[in-house]
C-alpha cells in the first residue's frame, strides 16, 4: 500500500542525511496522498543506515495507524496538523539542523537579508510564540503544530515554506516530500548566512520589498524565468 | 579476559573518530564490568587507525593494571573516580571536542537553550570549579575527577550525563561505553548550537522548566514515547 | 562549435562543486571566445551531477542564443555586461558562497586584512550600491551587471577580480573560466578569514599599503616571484 | 641526495592537505639535515596532487640551490632564517590555515585558554610586530624570518613551537618535518577553540600558570606521562 509514497518519503529522509542536516536518528520527513488522506512518515528512532521504504509508517489524518509495523515518529501529530491546515502541501520535514535551530533557540525570526533567502522565502522565516506550560503539559506535539498554524494565520505557507518553533527547531514543507527536504536544506543555508550577516552587521535591515518581489517571482508563478520549465 | 568489554570500549573510541570529535590521538573512552569491578580503557597516545580491542588496558577500580601490555590513557584516574562515585554509569568518554571545550575554556555552563539539549540533559551542562594550584600540583588527574564529583553533589549524573571541566574540556558518560560516546557527540552538537544561540541573542534565557520536563521525560523514564522500545 | 570553450566552462562549473561553493543548482560559470565574440554559459537549473559540455549554452555578446538546446543561466545578462565592460577577462563566475554572500548581505566591503587577501585582491573587495526599485523592476539582471561596472569605474578589474553585489552575492572573474572559479574559491576563503578577523578585532584596520603592494606584485606583473613560471 | 629527508618533507606537506590546512598550492613544509647543513623544501606553486619527493628543492643554509630542478617555495628565506636562529628544530611549516591566520590578521596573540593549548604551547602563541615599510620593501621574506626571531628573543622555540606573523599567517616548527606539520595542525585547532572562547567570553583570562606547567610538562621533559614512551 502506498509503495510509491513510501519510497518518496524514504528518499526525502535520506536527503536529510546526505545534506548533513541530521545526527543519529534526529529528524523526520513525511508525505501525504491527498486523495486517500493517508500520510507516510519515518518510524521513531530507527537508524537511517538500515531504513527501508517498508519501514515507513502509514496513518490517516487523525493519526490512526493503517500500515507498517513500527511506531511512527514521535513528531507525527505536528506533521498531521500541518497537513490538515495547509491543504496545498504534500510533504513535511522536521530537523534540528544547527543554524536554523540556533535562530529558533534565540527566538529570532530570520530576516530576508539577501536574494538566496528571497528565492525561497517571501519574507522573514517566522518564529512561533512559545508554548504555554498548559500547552506543553497537554498534547504537546499537536500543540506544536497548532502554534505553527497560528503563526501562519496571515501568512501563505506556499510563499514561506518553513518556520522556526521557538526554543525547539525548524519545520519545512513543500509540494512533495523531496521538495520539503529541499526547503529544509535551503533554510539551513539561509540560516547560516543570516547568522554570519547578523554578527557582521547587527544593524542590517535586509533587502527591499522590490528585491524580495523580484527574486521570489523569478522562481515562482507564471512569470518564473529560472530553470528549464515553461 | 573481558574481550566483550574491550570490543565495546574500542567501538566507543572509534565512534569518537567517526563523528569528528577527536584529532590525532586526543580523547579516550572506557567501560566497566561492574560485577568484576574492572575497567577497560584506551591506551595512551596510540593512533586510532591501528588500535585493536586487545590494546585496551584493564585495571581495577584503584588503577592497578590487571591486563594489557600498554600504558593506560593518562586520564585514567579521572575515569576511575567517576566510576567510583556514579554507580549507575557503565562508560566514560573524554574528548577535546571543540565547541564543548570552548564553553569549558570560557568557564560558562551550557544553558538549556532548546529541546535538543532537553532531550539529553535535564538542566544546564555544568562547569566545574577551577582546580587550585595545590590540586593541580598534587594528584591532578584524580583531582579532576573529584572536582567533577563535587560539582554533581546536588545533581543526578544519569539526568545530566556530561560536564565541562573548567579550562579543560568535557567528560560524558552513559550506561555503557557507546552511550557515553553518544552523549559526547550530542554534547558537542548542543554546545555548537548553544554557541550560535548565545552569540545571536546574548540575553537568551533558555527554555522553560515545563519544556525541559517534557522533552527530557519524552526520552527517559516509564512514560518515554521516543523510539521503538516499550 | 566552441567545444573547447564548452569543456572549459563545464570544468569551471564543476570546480565550484568540488570546492564546496555551491548547493544544488546554485551558481554558474561562463567563458568567452573573444575572437568570435561568443560566450558559453551553464544552463539554468540543471543538476551539476549530470551536466555535460554539450549542455553549455552559447550566445553572442547581446544574449542571442547561437548554440545549445537549453535555456541559459538566468544570470546571463550580468555575465555579458561584465564581458562587454571588462575586455581583459575571459571567464566569469557567480556563486552564493556563504561567507562572501554574508559580507554582501551585510553591505560591507571586505577589507584587506592580510596577505592571503593581498595575494589576489589589490585593495578591498568592493560592494556595489543597492539597486533602486526602478532598476530592480526593470532589466534586473542586466542592471546588476551595470551596478558592478559602475563600482569599478575607478578600479582595475584585473587587480580586483571580484565584487560583492549588495544584498545578493559575489561575482568573480579571471583570464579564463577556471581562473574565474579559482578567484571565487579564494574569495570565499578570504571572506571566511575576514569574518573571523572582524569579529575577533572589530577595530582591525588591515594591512599597510606597502604590504598590499608587496604581496600583490609577488604574484602579478613582470617581477612576480611565485610559481614555476618565468 | 637526501632522499630520506625529501620523503619526510613530502609527507609533511601532504599531511597539511590531509588535515585540511591548505587550499590549492598554499602552504609549505621543509626539513633540515643538520649534519650537512642542507634544507629540503616544497617547490613553489606546484599542485600537491602530483608532487613527488624528487620535486623537493635542496638548498644550503644561505639559500644556494644544490639539488632539484624546480624553484623553491617563495617563503624559503623565512624557513632558512628559522633554521639558522633555532638550532634545535628540524622542520618548519607555513600555512594560511584559517583560524590561526585570523588571529594573525587581528594582530592578537592566542592566549592559553585551556589545556589543549597548554599541552603544546607553554604560554601564548605570540604575534610578531608588523614589519616596517622598509622591511617590506627590502628583503621581505628574510625580514619576516627576522621578525619571528626577534619575537622569540625571550622565548624558547621548543616550548612554543609556533608563531603568528602579524597581518599574514602562522609558522610552526618541530624536531622534524612531520612534527612541524603536527604542530601546525594543533595550532589551527587551538586557534579555532580560542576564537570560540574569546567570542563567548571576551573577559576570559585563560588558565593559571600552575595548569600551564602541569599540562606542558605532562607531554614534555623527563617526567612526561603521556604516550607509550619511557
Structure summary:
The structure is a homotetramer of 230-residue chains. Chain A is an alpha+beta fold and 230 residues long. Helices cover 40% and strands 13% of the residues of chain A.
Largest sheet of chain A: 7 strands, antiparallel
Radius of gyration of chain A: 17 Å
Q: How would you name the oligomeric state of the polypeptide chains in this document? A: homotetramer
Average pLDDT of chain A: 95
Measured by DSSP, the beta-strand proportion of chain A falls in 5-15%
Strand order of the largest sheet of chain A: 4-3-2-1-5-7-6
**If helices are DSSP runs of H or I spanning 4 or more residues, what is the number of helices of chain A?**
8
Q: Would you count the extended β strands of chain A for me? A: 7
Distance between the termini of chain A: 34 Å
Give the chain pair forming the largest contact, with residue counts. A-B, 34 and 30 residues
What general outline of chain A do the C-alpha atoms trace? globular
Helix content of chain A: 40-55%
Low-confidence stretches of chain A: none
Structural class of chain A: alpha+beta
Give the SSE order of chain A as H and E letters.
Answer: HEEEEHEHHHHEEHH
Can you tell me about this structure?
With 230 residues, chain A is an alpha+beta fold. Chain A has helices at 3-18, 76-85, 98-106, 115-120, 133-137, 140-151, 177-200, 209-219; strands at residues 28-33, 38-41, 57-60, 65-67, 91-94, 162-164, 170-174. Chain A has a seven-stranded antiparallel β-sheet, with helices on both faces. In chain A, a hairpin with a 5-residue loop joins β6 (162-164) and β7. In chain A, α2 runs parallel beside α6. Chain A is globular and about 50 Å long. The two termini of chain A are 34 Å apart. Chain A binds chain B through residues 23-26, 43-46, 70-71, 74, 96, 98-99, 101-108, 130-131, 133, 136-137, 140, 167-169, 195, 198-199, and chain B through 113-116, 182, 185-186, 189, 192-194, 196-197, 199-201, 204, 206-208, 210-211, 213-214, 218, 225-229.
Amino acid at each position: 500500500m502506498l509503495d510509491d509514497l513510501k519510497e518518496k518519503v524514504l528518499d526525502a529522509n535520506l536527503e536529510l542525511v546526505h545534506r548533513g542536516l541530521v545526527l543519529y536518528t534526529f529528524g523526520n520527513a513525511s508525505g501525504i496522498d491527498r486523495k486517500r488522506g493517508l500520510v507516510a512518515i519515518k518510524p521513531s528512532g530507527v537508524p537511517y543506515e538500515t531504513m527501508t521504504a517498508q519501514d515507513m509508517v502509514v496513518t490517516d489524518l487523525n493519526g490512526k495507524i493503517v500500515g507498517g509495523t513500527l511506531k511512527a515518529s514521535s513528531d507525527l501529530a505536528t506533521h498531521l496538523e500541518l497537513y490538515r491546515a495547509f491543504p496545498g502541501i504534500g510533504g513535511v520535514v522536521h530537523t534540528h539542523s544547527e543554524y536554523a535551530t540556533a535562530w529558533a533557540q534565540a527566538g529570532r525570526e530570520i530576516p530576508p537579508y539577501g536574494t538566496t533567502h528571497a528565492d525561497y522565502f517571501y519574507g522573514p522565516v517566522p518564529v512561533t510564540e512559545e508554548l504555554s506550560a498548559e500547552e506543553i503539559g497537554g498534547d504537546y506535539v499537536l500543540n506544536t503544530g497548532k502554534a505553527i498554524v497560528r503563526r501562519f494565520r496571515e501568512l501563505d505557507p506556499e510563499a514561506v515554506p518553513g518556520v522556526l518553533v521557538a526554543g525547539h527547531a525548524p519545520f519545512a514543507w513543500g509540494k512533495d516530500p523531496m521538495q520539503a527536504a529541499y526547503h529544509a536544506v535551503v533554510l539551513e543555508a539561509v540560516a547560516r548566512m543570516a547568522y554570519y550577516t547578523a554578527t557582521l552587521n547587527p544593524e542590517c535591515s535586509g533587502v527591499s520589498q522590490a528585491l524580495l518581489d523580484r527574486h521570489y517571482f523569478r522562481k515562482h508563478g507564471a512569470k518564473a524565468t529560472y530553470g528549464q520549465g515553461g
